[in-house]
Amino acid sequence: MQSQKQSFLAPAHVSKFDDYLHSTRTAAVSKYEIKAGWEIPAVFDEALNSDLPGKIRPLAMSNVYDAARHSRMALFGPNRL
Predict the structure, then answer these.
(1) Considering the domain boundaries, does residue 22 fall inside one?
(2) pTM of the entire structure?
């Protein structure tokens, strides 16, 4: 049983892949940049029916600050998104 485990783990010890990320962080495009995945507190002020096509217009409820320093206001609330 132990030899099966060792044979399973053997390829991991001689891995040909480099596990390090070779890219660097890039500077912000704007001083008011909001990164992807950033949560913006918002609500819908109109009824939403998913059966009908159309656009949705959420309303940001509070101020949103930039992703880098959290010091510059990138989006003033309340505001349409």
Answers:
(1) no
(2) 0.47
